[in-house]
Amino acid sequence: MIYRELGKDKVKVSQLGFGCMRFPTIDGDTKNIDIAATTDLLRYAINNGVNYIDTAYPYHDGMSEVVVGEILNKENLRHKVNLVSKLSLWMIKSKDDLEKFLDDQLERSHQTYFDFYLVHALNKDYWKKVKEFDVLSFLDKAKKEGKIKYVGFSFHDESLDLFKEIVDGYDWDLAQIQYNYLDKYYQAGIEGLEYCESKGIGCVIMEPLKGGHLANNLPPEAEEVFKKANKNDSFASWSLKWLLNQNNVKVILSGMNDLNQVIDNIDTTSKYSVNSLSEEEKATIDNVLEIINKTKRIDCTNCKYCMPCPQGVLIPNNFAYYNKYYNFDCKKNRESIKGMYNSIFIDSEKASACIECGLCETHCPQHLKIRDLLKDVSTLFES
Ligand SMILES: NC(=O)c1ccc[n+]([C@@H]2O[C@H](COP(=O)([O-])OP(=O)(O)OC[C@H]3O[C@@H](n4cnc5c(N)ncnc54)[C@H](OP(=O)(O)O)[C@@H]3O)[C@@H](O)[C@H]2O)c1
Ligand code: SF4
Ligand code: SF4
Question: What is the rounded CA–CA span in Å between residue 289 and residue 16?
């Protein structure tokens, strides 16, 4: 594993971080984490150099923090890692809740402190809340009390100006942004990354594979381009090495749920680092980007922030099927995707079950017009 330095104290962090939002589950129940399989993944990753573990209260419907804490303690791995959790402001109703929330997180995860504590998914509204509830003073106090060591924020808003305002608004140790070769100019994007660098703030990357699409959903033409350039490297590794090439990318989080993924991503992050990408490789990625941009219809990253829908609509799954339908330009694939949609989804999970209440749209970090898009999905698959 190759390490970089993060925060004012130059904490040594592994280039690969474990994102704890997509663990293996039992019977597809997000709350029911497969603890044995997850233990194997975390044990392998940590014993092979991963020292940055990113969880949050809402992940796996509240169970990620709990399970991660238990595994780290039980396997005697806690001292080897930087444990990261987040202050999810949508769960905070008053200033008094801030301390209760953090104490509850520490208690649930059986920890005495978090190494990094991030204000979660900041956007315009939550930044207002940060000011209204004097969250930054609370974070200073929590640091003094030893409940957290370092403070950062994660960001999900369209406005680069807001991003810069937040960067300048506190003495942060890190900024966590969504970034990958498809999202170079999306949200904070490359300009945000470089702005942070100019201020001495390192970036942690979320959704480096666009929720898995850049590894598992590439158009065949794009796969061919990668295979032709290097038949040994996985599609995931292309995305990771594009990120690793950049100096202010300190940690790449990946939500791995399978040992092969962990092994592959450790391999990539142990081989590649700043300036290891050749001009030819950059051109290969540009070529793939062009191909993908031609096929993609809905920019959903499967983060599941929109869930649960009160009506039971499986929003990201609907979008995944819609994108899959267009990813591969062949009749056989389209018929098979349509058939699978209608056999796998029960009626309440389908797009047509949406009653257009709009709740999901208030949570979508990608600001998707979910209601309109669900109508498109319904027309495509259910008519
Ligand atoms: N703070 C925030 O607002 C926020 C928002 C989003 C995410 N995050 C954090 O950032 C982390 C990373 O984001 P992410 O989970 O979306 O990362 P990601 O790497 O973009 O997507 C993860 C998915 O990629 C696939 N994958 C990973 N490695 C692979 C490999 N070597 N080969 C093939 N497929 C591979 C898997 O998909 P399959 O499951 O399809 O196999 C996996 O579930 C999250 O886990 C979470 O901790 C934070
Ligand atoms: S708008 Fe539709 S999909 Fe979204 S929460 Fe409401 S019913 Fe569910
Ligand atoms: S619709 Fe938005 S909130 Fe829901 S999974 Fe997709 S990107 Fe995430």
Answer: 23
